[in-house]
Amino acid sequence: MSHQPPPLVFQDMLTHHQDRALLQELWEHFPEHMFLIRVESPQRFVVEAVNPAQQTTIGYPCVGLTIEELLPDAEQARSVTDHYRDCLACDHPLRYEEIGHFHEESGEPLHWLTLLVPLHDDQGRTTHLFGISQNVTELRLARQALEAQNARLEALVAERTAELQASNARLEALASRDELTGIANRRQLITLSEHAMQRARRQHTPLALLILDIDGFKAINDTRGHLAGDAILREVAQTLADTLRESDLLGRFGGDEFVAVLPDTRAEDARHLAERLRGAVTQRCGCTLGLGIADFTPHDDFASLVERADRALLRAKRARGASR
Ligand SMILES: Nc1nc2c(ncn2[C@@H]2O[C@H](COP(=O)(O)OP(=O)(O)OP(=O)(O)O)[C@@H](O)[C@H]2O)c(=O)[nH]1
């Protein structure tokens, strides 16, 4: 198969002589490496010529050397000849980046961006590979430094975000917890109770609300002091939390009043549980509890439910006062 050489780039503008002169100028003065490799076989590549820029870098006569002789590092030589074979196989200009240097004792490896062009004879056989190599080490090192800097920044942002999330979680916990007892505060109790009531309404399930109030707490404070009063509030909260189920909600409603919301619980079961709570508090905290219970109806909201439980608590207190 005969192979038509492509027309010269400048054939319409330059004479053949000028064309050659231009190539000669480029070869002599181009600041990047230019080289011509003779393809003796797909396994054997020999340096045919290097331009002055590349000759300066190499520093010793290299024309006539095979790639293995030219490059001291066997792996680097293999990588280069692999690129040459790729170029032969695709029979098309090839661009690639490689890392390496010409001298064994050189320090940090250099990065080269290379364009390789197959050159053909009249029969279309690839006899030579023409290459231009640009030293892009500074560019690559700058890119690596930028990537490292980006990675550091990303790590810093991730660290700050985690800190922020943790402090948000702490703030949220602080905003939703009663400082003295650690159980839900009134605001949190109302929010959670509204959700529980919505579920009860939707699923037609029972729900009960208990108000528990420490009997004669003012007298405890007055006789044993506020710190002792605080300790009792903490003990009562802990005892109530220990006795209730995981799914029940418990909060400090204010002063010496606690509210428990019991999802999936009928009035009768709520009464039994309330007695258990009172028994546990009497036993563990050395005080007694007044109690009011309200059963949820679909028309209730938190306020109406609390109001009924509060009235029941007052009635119970009055009844106990009258019976004393
Ligand atoms: N130690 C302490 N006392 C508190 C706290 N919050 C409210 N109190 C006190 O709790 C007492 C509640 O008094 P009352 O509402 O009259 O209740 P009580 O003395 O238990 O009366 P009854 O409920 O009728 O038995 C008041 O003296 C408040 O000052 C607190 O965080 N710590």
UniProtKB/TrEMBL annotation:
Residues 136-163 form a coiled coil. The keyword Lipid metabolism does not apply. Residues 95-148 form the PAC domain. GO terms for molecular function: diguanylate cyclase activity. PROSITE patterns: GGDEF, PAC. Residues 205-324 form the GGDEF domain. Transmembrane segments: none annotated. InterPro entries: Diguanylate_Cyclase, GGDEF_dom, Nucleotide_cyclase, PAS-assoc_C, PAS-like_dom_sf, PAS_4, Rev_trsase/Diguanyl_cyclase. Its EC number is 2.7.7.65. Keywords: Coiled coil, Nucleotidyltransferase, Transferase. This is diguanylate cyclase. It catalyses: 2 GTP = 3',3'-c-di-GMP + 2 diphosphate. It comes from the Bacteria. It comes from Halomonas salifodinae. CDD domains: GGDEF.
